[in-house]
Amino acid sequence: MLNKNMLRRNYLIIRRIMKKDVPTKKMIMNYLTNHDIAIDNRTLDRDLGYIRYNLGVAIEYDHDRRGYYIDVEISEHFDKLLYFIGLAENADVILDALKNKQALWQYLSISPSGSFKGVENIGVLLQAIRNRLVISFNHLNYSTGNHTPYSVEPYLLKEFEGRWYLFGYVADKKDFRTFGLDRMSDLEVTATSFKRTPQRESSANRFDDVYGLTYMPNQQNPAKETVSFRCNSDYILNHFLALPLHHSQKAGGKVISLRLIINPELENKLLSYGEQIEVLMPESLRKTMKGRLAEAGRQYRKN
């Protein structure tokens, strides 16, 4: 069982090895000591084994340099793992800081929005997905203000631009739907189980092939395409290198390439960079971007 103390140790061990200087055991333990954690060689060995076999992180030993490194290419869902154990680590820091609330609030600047609403249900929804249990809830329609009751087979949680969404199969509609966690209320996990079929599993997995949320199974299996664009400054190139748009992103010179399903959210995102980038391919997307930018220009030429 991974307890809170072990979780923090694991997170710090991974972070230390990720510095890419192939640290020795002594260097790792010194790093932990600097974070108020003292362990011996035997405990470190156990932690390294747990990280390898239970968390799926490929920590390897370099015999020549007598230190450790992580083979990210074969580490299972490495970015997702870091994200969640990072959340857990940061939550501990924040909870500790809450002992002096006034000192905490003066160092935080948070924009007022509904971004955080519903995140308290992430743990419950993850359990329902893992245990394949049908959930029920009411979902708010922002346009009408109405709450619609749903019974859903949950398949996937997806984060996009700071908000969380549930992708699930609605049996009475015989279709998938995407639900914003910030719009869900009266969430209940039922005792009714469901079977994850290969076809529906495939539909959920296709979310890895899009930027955003608009891919739906009824789009008749849209194909992935290669999208490439040129960055017109070192600044914007470094922006994309630091904050990739998609896990498929590759860079060559000042050209960024993505391999994904083209959807309106991707178009809007690329448009938001204006003159800082130039879409090169596919030609259909280039023409769409050119037309939308021309129309935007016409708006500003009106009296």
List the helices and strands and how they pair.
Blueprint: H1 4-17, H2 25-34, H3 41-53, E1 59-62, E2 67-70, H4 78-97, H5 101-105, H6 122-131, E3 133-140, E4 147-160, E5 163-170, E6 175-180, E7 184-193, H7 198-205, E8 225-231, H8 234-242, E9 250-252, E10 255-260, H9 264-271, E11 277-281, H10 283-301
Antiparallel strand pairs: 1-2, 3-4, 3-7, 4-5, 5-6, 8-10, 8-11, 9-10
Helix pairs in contact: 1-3
Fold and architecture overview:
Helix 1 (4-17) packs across helix 3. Strand 3 (133-140) and strand 4 form a beta hairpin. The longest helix is centred in the first third of the chain and has 20 residues, at 78-97. With 303 residues, the chain is an alpha+beta fold. The strands form three sheets. Strands 6-5-4-3-7 form a five-stranded antiparallel sheet. Strands 9-10-8-11 form a four-stranded antiparallel sheet. It has a two-stranded antiparallel sheet with strand order 1-2. The chain has helices spanning 4-17, 25-34, 41-53, 78-97, 101-105, 122-131, 198-205, 234-242, 264-271, 283-301, and strands at residues 59-62, 67-70, 133-140, 147-160, 163-170, 175-180, 184-193, 225-231, 250-252, 255-260, 277-281. It has three domains: 4-89, Arc Repressor Mutant, subunit A, CATH 1.10.10; 119-213, SH3 type barrels, CATH 2.30.30; 225-301, Alpha-Beta Plaits, CATH 3.30.70. The protein is 38% helix and 25% strand.
